[in-house]
Amino acid sequence: SYSIVISPPETDRSFIHCPGANDSFDPEAVTDDMLRGAALLHLGYPPIMRQTYIDGGVKLARLYDRAKALGLCTTLDMCGFDCQSEAASANWGQVLSRVLPAVDCFLPSCDELALMLDMAVDSRPNIEQLQTLGERCLDLGCAVVVIKLGDEGLFAMAGEDAARLDAIVDGWGQHAGQCLTEPCFAVEAMGTTGAGDTTIAGFIAAIVTHAPLPRALSIAAATGAHSVA
Asked: Does the model's pTM come out above 0.90?
């Protein structure tokens, strides 16, 4: 796949994207033998990987179910999509209801999540709106949701099921029922392309090095800040 990112100063970015071979990626191509011995399964951007949503998320859910059965921690990232595209006609509520029960950490942006769940939020959502979004994700089955807020940082909620992560990262269960926030680090921004991806990479690195949840959020924000700078 490839993307052209149009990023004028003081203006939100626009994307021209060609999914290329990503549209033919089949979740069932990831075999149990590939998963065995891994610590974590991460998948990013189902909205631009056609085979992950065209069946309502059935194959994607199977992949995550198999990963959990093999003892892996699981994370899932999302991306925005053109409201005129095929992805826009998918039932994302259905996809998430199938997949999230086997997702330990769900990592969408606020805009992506509001679009997928057909929920109205402000351009700079207040804490009540974020809690409503977070609770919806937890109700759909994930253990922890981390919502990216652009230059406002990160908002996280841990569900009552967060203790299932204690087998991988000791102590996350103690945050069950809590909301956590992490502001952005103050840096001179040179460009924001890739900042969300590196933020998530920092969060995943924190998981596999057994960082506590508040520390994982801080590492994620710091990694994103390095990218922006």
From this structure: yes
